[in-house]
Inverse folding.
């Protein structure tokens, strides 16, 4: 079995904002494109034009319906739809690493990224069984375990402009729902977002200490706090005739003698 | 095992080269960086410098590599050798293909050019294809707007000189409340996602009005799950509330709208309901300074919003009084619309109140001076930070035009259009209907058509009618059936051509339009029309030429296939003459260029038109010596001159590239675009950034850039006078008279102030028998069938269940895995169902155009798209069911002719589980075979 580093200098990871994720799958396909062409074996697809297409993806978006509890007056609020992108959370206590029989799975001591060294991977699949999040996928063509690399071949890549040294999924996210940074730095963008927006761990009871955090959706369908009728919709007239009377007065009262 | 880390190269080479072009995976037109390795496409990402997407890219865009390499790509020109619809073809040379095309096109051009119907589907080169059709001389040209969103576009142009998407956008950075109506993933997809993210980050509230809570509506802070087809009623009810409370922007209304224009109210006059005008034809207002009549645009005039004018014993009132008459009526009180719209009255009030609160209590002021067209200087730019966006959901109804108009009137009453925080136009818009061309349809054999096909009518005189009163155009656009059909009616072309009404045609020539599948109502009927024969064995529609890059369902129904390139192999211009990529703060246009050369015997369609145009000796396509004028589309883009100094591309004009907007031809223009990342952009000056229709600085800048040749300030048309002119004709005024059966409908629907009426289908079917509304929307990760079925994206959306709300789910005791029979007055389908709670309780829906026909798109016959996927189109007819008046009414908006897809009513019941979704359409023979069994797509080593 494989050891984890006792500590890591940085804790690189993602903040995923469930309030703004529209479920567009941009991150899914950008990840597929980058990681097919880059790190290790391509992400293959079986039966891609057939009856049962199945391919390797390092990041998938699931959608869940949520029925908020009934209000005090007994009425049922509208159901909500939450889009939930999921990839490796680069856990501090990553069970996928400790279960690995060959040392192929490892967590980097410098930044905490969990990777698979494909040369040493025997495709036994134990790590995928050990991961409570279902974040690893065995590539059916290459026979090696694939997982999110946090784009380790982008974030330090000197062949990329500095502004592009971030994971492909973060760079491409249209609604800015994905953020990349160092959780070991309390003043990093991801630490601040987590603090200010109540970022949470996914399934903390699993004891894996995930590095990635999720931001909860803001409350939805909340009735306005002000009184609707007064002042905003207090009638100034009952009918068209009354309205014209009001209009004449209102025009005279406009500042600067307009009209 | 102790901790061990292998050596890892964290700076691998990314690519040999980046080529920057424009995406075509949907209509959004984002900039992309195409990373090349060893001459092949390795990876596609968004272009950070590009004005549309600023670096981001959606799933479709990133999956472009699978589109470009798709096994469904056509490989060579095809000639039909079996029966139409069989898919039996043989590959032929381009010489033979062009000779066949010429053989069809030349004789009819010399005798009766209208016998060519040329319709170009999801074309992004309409200013070019329209120019070609005009030069050919046929009146029968349009693209797909008639079955897409013409209501939105036309209502916007007639009301305020622009609509949404390529016309305008919320002021995302300053807005504090965004209300989106009927928006799924249609159009402008990345900018809307980016905008929602930014607005939310700024604390703005997002409201989604949609029967379906997915996508943008899922992240909306508040969801209004409205009953389909009632948006107009909801909006008019909010207008009622706001007017009744006086929560409207009187200053804005007086100055910048025709609320203050006087209406002729003499019941004896043939001009009743038209504007009072001076001798120069200018609409009149009462000038508050003098109390006298004055033209709306007179220098120094202060239009009075409430003053009336007495003449010959008749009181003429301003438009605003007429609006008070109409909208203060109890008909629009929240209590009276709540049941119909499915929105409780208190929620309608609360939304109106919130709009008022944000618009007026959270006013934004920019310290920027500006001068309006009457010469009045304004010290500041005052904004009302409520913005709106809307698209097909409100547009694709038979009451869509008036509903879109109602939304614009709401925006304008709140004073939010073209103000900080509101909705802003994108150059070259705003541009009022009067500044657009009128439609043209005069055929002269041997000469070009008398002008551009599509435009904006100003009254009955502009209709395209033959001497006997029948329509000039095969699609009956600009006829009494649908007088303001600004985009044509592509969805009626095949059925009209098949019926020979208004006349028979000879050749149907189409591009990128999947009419034999998801782009038609009544899909099975259209397939039959395309294959139907006369008694003598000839086809009813004699010749069909089709161009597509992929093996779509339509291919089997053509006699000649001209294979197009993929979007990475071609030239294109996203032109200011067409539908450009501008932003509110900038004018911009863009190109596509061949970042790779085709490895098949295919040619860009527009280049083929250049060659065909020359073969047919068409004006504009040949030099004086008769030789071919444009070698290919790239040559046309560079050298075509539309008006002096104005060509397809606005940037880098003149030999030295110095021209911006106007300038001479630059032979190196395309290279200048390539060097600049595939696009050109110039920013709107700060003093011209808002109030554009009225702002002198903007008007001058627009002329300088060549959007138009003289300043043309205007005011928003709350009251659309051309509509009143059609009503007047229906009342018997004037020479040009509608046919008797349309009089009543024209009087009722063409109200010059927005109204709501029930979708037409409601009056043609028994709404108790068909109580359920059925809709489609596009998924964010898949566009409709203009590309192929993408290997990566189909793993996200490989089939499309019918989503059913809880009430209907429980009433039918549906369970997971069940199938349902769905019936309309027109047809029935049997399809898989899934439960969705976040849905209007009387609405079912599915993803658009996932269902595919066996044999198309290089998919296996057992692909889920073909076995479980389905089209709702089978339930929708282009005509409404008979209602006993001896007529068949079109299933379209009566004003624009827009296809009323979303009026559909159905009933649903549990079904036995069939082998496959019903109806099962037999397979067609694939001209390209099936795709590979495996993909492991790595270009670099």
């Amino acid at each position: 079995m494989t050891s984890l580093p006792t500590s890591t200098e940085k804790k690189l990871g993602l903040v995923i904002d469930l309030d703004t994720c529209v479920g567009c799958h941009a991150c899914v396909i950008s990840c597929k494109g980058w990681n097919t062409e880059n790190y290790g074996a391509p992400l293959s697809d079986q039966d891609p034009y057939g009856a049962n297409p199945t391919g390797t993806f390092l990041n998938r978006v699931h959608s869940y319906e949520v029925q908020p509890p009934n209000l005090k007056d007994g009425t049922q609020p509208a159901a909500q739809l939450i889009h939930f992108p999921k990839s490796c959370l680069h856990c501090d206590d990553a069970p996928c690493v400790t279960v690995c029989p060959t040392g192929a799975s490892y967590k980097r001591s410098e930044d905490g990224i969990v990777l698979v060294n494909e040369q040493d991977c025997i495709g036994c699949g134990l790590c995928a069984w050990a991961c409570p999040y279902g974040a690893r996928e065995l590539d059916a063509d290459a026979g090696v375990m694939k997982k999110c690399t946090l784009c380790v071949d982008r974030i330090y890549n000197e062949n990329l402009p500095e502004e592009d040294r971030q994971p492909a999924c973060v760079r491409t996210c249209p609604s800015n729902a994905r953020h990349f940074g160092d959780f070991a730095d309390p003043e990093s963008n991801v630490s601040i977002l987590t603090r200010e927006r109540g970022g949470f761990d996914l399934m903390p009871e699993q004891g894996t200490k995930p590095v990635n955090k999720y931001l909860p959706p803001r409350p939805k369908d909340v009735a306005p706090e002000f009184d609707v009728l007064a002042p905003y919709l207090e009638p100034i007239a009952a009918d068209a005739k009354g309205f014209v009377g009001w209009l004449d007065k209102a025009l005279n009262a406009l500042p600067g003698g307009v009209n | 095992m102790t901790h061990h880390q292998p050596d890892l190269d964290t700076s691998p080479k990314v690519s040999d080269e980046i080529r920057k072009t424009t995406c075509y995976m949907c209509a959004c037109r984002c900039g992309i960086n195409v990373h090349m390795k060893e001459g092949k496409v390795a990876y596609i990402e968004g272009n950070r410098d590009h004005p549309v997407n600023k670096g981001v890219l959606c799933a479709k865009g990133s999956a472009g590599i699978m589109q470009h390499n798709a096994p469904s790509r056509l490989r060579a020109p095809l000639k039909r050798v079996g029966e139409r619809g069989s898919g039996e073809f043989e590959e032929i040379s381009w010489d033979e293909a062009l000779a066949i095309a010429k053989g069809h096109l030349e004789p009819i051009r010399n005798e009766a050019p209208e016998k060519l119907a040329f319709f170009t589907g999801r074309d992004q080169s309409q200013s070019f294809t329209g120019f070609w059709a005009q030069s050919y001389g046929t009146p029968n040209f349009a693209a797909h707007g008639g079955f897409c969103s013409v209501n939105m576009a036309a209502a916007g142009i007639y009301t305020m000189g622009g609509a949404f998407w390529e016309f305008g956008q919320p002021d995302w950075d300053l807005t504090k409340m965004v209300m989106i109506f009927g928006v799924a993933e249609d159009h402008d997809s990345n900018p809307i996602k980016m905008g929602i993210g930014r607005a939310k980050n700024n604390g703005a509230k997002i409201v989604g009005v949609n029967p379906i809570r997915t996508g943008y509506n899922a992240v909306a802070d508040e969801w209004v799950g409205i009953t389909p087809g009632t948006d107009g009623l909801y909006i008019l009810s909010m207008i009622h509330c706001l007017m009744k409370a006086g929560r409207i922007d009187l200053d804005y209304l007086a100055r910048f709208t025709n609320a203050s224009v006087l209406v002729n109210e003499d019941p004896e006059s043939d001009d009743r309901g038209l504007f009072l005008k001076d001798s120069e034809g200018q609409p009149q207002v009462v000038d508050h300074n003098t109390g006298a009549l004055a033209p709306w645009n007179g220098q120094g005039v202060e239009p009075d919003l409430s003053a009336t004018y007495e003449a010959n014993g008749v009181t003429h009132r301003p438009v605003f009084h007429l609006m008070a008459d109409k909208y203060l009526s109890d008909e629009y009180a929240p209590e009276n619309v709540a049941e119909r719209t499915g929105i409780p009255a208190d929620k309608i009030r609360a939304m109106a109140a919130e709009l008022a609160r944000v618009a007026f209590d959270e006013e934004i002021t920019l310290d920027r001076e500006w001068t309006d067209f009457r010469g009045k200087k304004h010290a500041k730019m005052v904004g009302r930070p409520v913005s709106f966006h809307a698209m097909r959901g409100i547009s694709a109804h038979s009451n869509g035009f008036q509903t879109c108009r109602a939304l614009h009137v709401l925006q304008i009453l709140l004073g939010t259009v073209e103000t900080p925080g509101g909705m802003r136009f994108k150059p070259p818009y705003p541009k009022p209907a009067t500044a657009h061309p009128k439609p043209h349809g005069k055929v002269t054999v041997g000469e070009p058509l008398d002008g551009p096909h599509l435009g904006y009518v100003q009254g009955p005189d502009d209709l395209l009618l033959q001497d006997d009163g029948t329509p000039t155009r095969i699609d009956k656009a600009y006829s009494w059936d649908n007088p303001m059909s600004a985009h044509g009616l592509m969805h009626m072309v095949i059925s009209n051509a098949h019926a020979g009404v208004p006349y028979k045609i000879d050749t149907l020539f189409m591009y990128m339009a999947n009419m034999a599948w998801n782009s038609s109502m009544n899909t099975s009927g259209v397939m039959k029309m395309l294959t139907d024969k006369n008694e003598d064995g000839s086809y009813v529609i004699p010749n069909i030429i089709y161009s597509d890059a992929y093996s779509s369902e339509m291919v089997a129904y053509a006699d000649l296939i001209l294979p197009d390139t993929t979007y990475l192999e071609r030239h294109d211009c996203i032109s200011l003459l067409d539908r450009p990529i501008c932003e509110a703060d900038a004018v911009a246009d863009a190109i596509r260029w061949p970042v790779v050369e085709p490895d098949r015997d295919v040619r860009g369609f527009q280049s083929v038109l250049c060659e065909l145009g020359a073969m047919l000796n068409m004006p504009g396509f040949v030099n004086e010596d008769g030789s071919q004028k444009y070698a290919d589309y790239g040559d046309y883009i560079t050298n075509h001159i539309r008006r002096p100094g104005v060509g397809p591309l606005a940037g880098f004009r003149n030999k030295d590239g110095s021209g911006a907007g106007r300038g001479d031809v630059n032979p190196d223009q395309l290279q200048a675009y390539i060097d600049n990342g595939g696009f050109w952009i110039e920013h709107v000056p700060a003093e011209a950034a808002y109030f554009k229709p009225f702002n002198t600085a903007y008007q001058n800048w627009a002329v300088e850039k060549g959007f138009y040749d003289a300043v043309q300030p205007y005011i928003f048309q709350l009251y659309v006078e051309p509509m009143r002119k059609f009503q007047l004709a229906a009342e018997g005024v004037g020479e040009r008279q509608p046919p008797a059966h349309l009089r009543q409908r024209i009087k009722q629907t063409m109200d010059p102030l927005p109204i709501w009426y029930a979708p037409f289908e409601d009056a043609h079917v028994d709404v108790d028998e068909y109580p359920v509304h059925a809709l489609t929307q596009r998924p964010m990760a898949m566009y409709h069938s203009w590309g192929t079925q993408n290997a990566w994206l189909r793993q996200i959306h490989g089939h499309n269940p019918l989503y059913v709300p809880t009430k209907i789910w429980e009433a039918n005791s549906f369970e997971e895995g069940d199938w349902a029979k769905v019936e309309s007055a027109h047809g029935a389908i049997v399809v898989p169902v899934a439960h969705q709670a976040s849905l209007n309780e009387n609405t079912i829906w599915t993803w658009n155009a996932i269902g595919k026909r066996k044999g198309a798109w290089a998919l296996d016959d057992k692909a889920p798209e073909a076995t479980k996927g389905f089209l709702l189109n089978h339930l929708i007819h282009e005509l409404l069911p008979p209602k006993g008046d001896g007529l068949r009414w079109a299933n379209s908006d009566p004003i624009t002719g827009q296809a009323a897809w979303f009026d559909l009513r159905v009933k649903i019941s549990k079904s036995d589980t069939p082998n496959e979704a019903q109806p099962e359409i037999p397979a067609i023979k694939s001209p390209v075979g099936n795709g590979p069994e495996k993909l492991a797509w790595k270009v670099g080593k």
Observations:
- Chain A touches chain B through 103 residues (CB under 8 Å).
